[in-house]
Amino acid sequence: MIVQITETQNDVVARARRVMTPNYKPQPVVFTQGEGAFLYDREQRRYLDFAGGIAVCCLGHGHPVLANAIAEQAKQLLHVSNLYFNQMQIELAEKLVSISFADRVFFCNSGAEANEAAMKLARRYMQTVRKENRWKFVCAHHSFHGRTWAAISATGQPHYHEGFGPLVPGFVHVPFGNLEAMDAVIDEETCAILVEPVQGEGGVLAPDPAYLAGLRAIADKHRILLILDEVQTGVGRTGKWFAHEHSGVTPDIMSLAKGLAGGVPIGAMLCTEEVSKGFAPGAHASTFGGNPLACRAGLTVLKVIEQEGLLSHVERVGAHLREGLAELSTRIPGLTGARGMGLLAGVGVDPKVIDRAAIIERCRNLGLLLTQAGSDALRLTPPYIVSRSQVDDALGILERALNGEGATP
Ligand SMILES: *Cc1c(COP(=O)(O)O)cnc(C)c1O
Hints:
The chain is an alpha/beta fold. The protein is 37% helix and 17% strand. Strands 4-10-9-8-7-5-6 form a 7-stranded mixed beta sheet, with helices on both faces. The chain is globular. The structure holds pyridoxal-5'-phosphate.
């Protein structure tokens, strides 16, 4: 172990602050182990993990089936590159195709890269297959699509742009949930609409149930593509494999990442047969993308979700969590109501009444991890294996923190 037992947690934090670039602001805690929905720090204090690695650790920590599959694969074969076929990549692609609208899959290593691939494919499809000069993307205010240059350009939150100008050209933003505004900005140079089915980082905002169907109709009317960023909502997070299934319509392209391999870095861009014609050999690539380790982990996650019946569990336990958050909102001033879908849950917070950072700190001191989202929400994204009684425990801790307990002495 690299962290020395004789060091205090503060020593470790000080070491990190000396050598890491200063773009993160980590909370002063070092986790050394996890089991199920729990994390343990260096002092063996236990935390209910409703941050879930930011909606990544869908099977929780230390899931034996996932851990064994990763260990086995590591002994067998880690990496070969895309100069050769690999069995695991083919199997994960087949599985993803079988559970989705998509016909074809491209693998990469993160959500931003999956969106990058989606946007590159959309432009290349328009320019090389349709032979139309379409290059603009319409995205939503408060969206989040990742941190590469094109992904921040797509992201509709100005603070992610600060100091990085000029941005990649060709991105237009309209209010999330507003179909008229979307329809109005599309012109003969528009290539695609890119939105999240539920905005995660933007504040756990689920649109009107008819929104995605409206976007599909607008995209069809203008003969442009619909790209859904399901990096956070995909792979069961909302109680269906993909959040757009709640709407009854399908996109042309979808990006996935976060939960797909349960914590092993992976990204995927899925598309229809027609749109896939935009790529030709050499058009796009990733050295690590789809390596046997990540794909074995992804395949195992999908199998475990199926075998353990986790989609319906997410739906039930997520509804229970959001009912609890709605109920808390009726009693605690400054809470403005439950948000989200499945286990992508949030509670609105009036920042003038409640200091979110203080609540997160008090919850942590009381043994619960959660995250902020947008300017006015607390977000809860526990693993899919979380139990109803663990949800009740988390709600109890959150209430105590909101009532002033747990302050750092
Ligand atoms: C997290 C997230 C991303 C970025 O994923 P990275 O793996 O950090 O690049 C993109 N889109 C959405 C909706 C996300 O939640």
